[in-house]
From TrEMBL:
Residue span, DNA ligase D polymerase domain: 28-278
Keyword list, A-Z: Ligase
InterPro entries hit by this protein: LigD_pol_dom, MtLigD_Pol-like, NHEJ_LigD
Protein name, UniProt field: Non-homologous end-joining DNA ligase
Enzyme class: ligase
Top-rank taxon, per record: Bacteria
Length: 293
């Protein structure tokens, strides 16, 4: 029998709690749900009012892994959804607005991915994002060097950047912006990626060309496009370990130490208890910055 729990008055079936989802850590689905319930205070503000794409991995990262952008079959009627414009016509997507909808979605075993805009203003960017992806033998240390350059370059335009781990092998930089379309934000991000490549030609690449990737850090600016999504802060990734895309401090980035920038679910809960959300300022509208002309 599938156990049912009540969360803020909503009855939610929870299945296969003993199943190991992240095999290298022996991390079970029950532990995953506990992580999301405990991290909800920090995670939910980064999800709220944003259409969510699910990268589902119900049998772990070595099983079937697939994106779910439309509202999944069987979604409870109390889960908030939103119409999202697409080139082939509007579709409906889930919005994770509260703890019950977070726990319902977590029971599907999913990474959470969000657009850089809110449901009420699709295509009007309120986030700027860079995904720093190293091509071996480059790694996290090289990503940190590029992140520090981008931080200083953005600061020159009055934009404050906040770093987080990708939950894989790289880093993400996020900033709060306003007054620009996704198209314009994407063009600005591309221009900075090109500048970074010009400043560090032996280290940075702004193009996705696979043959050019070894030993360099690809500064992926394309996730600013209106149709693209990025892993949400505090989501667990579909990896053999329970790795989390977690906010880090600039001091940790400056250290360049992979062991300080590889965070798993238990680490993140301890950090939240100690430090709170290191990306809380990203959520403050007063901290958002217009893009330069």
């Amino acid at each position: 029998m599938t156990p049912i729990t009540e969360v803020e008055g909503r009855r939610i079936p929870l299945s296969n709690l003993e199943k190991v989802i992240h095999p290298e850590d022996g991390f079970t689905k029950g532990e995953l749900l506990h992580y999301y319930a405990t991290a909800a205070g920090a995670l939910l503000p980064h999800l709220r009012d944003r259409p969510v794409s699910f990268l589902r991995y119900p049998d772990g990262p070595h099983g079937q892994v697939f994106f779910s952008k439309n509202v999944p079959p069987g979604t409870p009627e109390w889960v908030t959804t939103a119409d999202v414009p697409r080139s082939d016509g509007p579709s409906r997507m889930v919005m994770v607005q509260d703890l019950p909808s977070l726990m319902w979605a977590a029971n599907l075993v999913t990474e959470f991915h969000t657009h850089q805009w809110l449901a009420g203003a699709p295509g009007e960017a309120d986030r700027l994002v860079f995904d720093l992806d190293p091509g071996p033998p480059a790694g996290l240390e090289e990503c940190c060097e590029v992140a520090l350059w981008l931080r200083d370059r953005l600061a020159g335009d009055g934009i404050e950047a906040y770093p987080k781990t990708s939950g894989s092998k790289g880093l993400h930089l996020l900033a709060a912006v306003r007054g620009a379309s996704s198209e314009r934000t994407s063009a600005y991000a591309k221009a900075l990626a090109v500048e970074a490549e010009a400043a560090m030609p032996g280290l940075v690449l702004h193009r996705m060309t696979r043959s050019l990737r070894p030993g360099k850090v690809f500064v992926d600016w394309s996730q600013n496009a209106a149709k693209k999504t990025t892993a949400t802060p505090y989501t667990v990734r579909a990896r053999p370990t329970a790795a989390v895309s977690a906010p880090v401090s600039w001091e940790e980035v400056a250290s360049g130490a992979p062991e300080r920038l590889t965070l798993r679910a238990p680490d993140v809960l301890a950090r939240l208890a100690r430090d709170g959300d290191l990306m809380a300022a990203l959520l403050d509208p007063a901290r958002s910055t217009p893009l330069p002309d």
